[in-house]
Amino acid sequence: MKLIICILQDSDKDTVTKALNAEGFRVTVLPSSGAYFRRGNSTLLIGLEEDQVQRAIEIVRENCLDPPEPEFKRATVFVLDVGRFVQF
To answer: Residue 53 falls within a domain, yes or no?
Structure first.
């Protein structure tokens, strides 16, 4: 099992989460802030199987707007191994 932590611009949050949900990915959204200008961000937590990771990253990439300037990034994605997963 894997966990994707995706930090993206607030303006991309709705489009990205809807696209992920449409393909069956469950997403938890956390408000966050950071970077130099303290712009609004959202952090997405996505638990998934290893064979689904690449597709989830593609969905994020396809649904983020182009950055206004080359030095700005629209999303930062971390993929982590999950040692244990429990729901109750």
So the answer is: yes
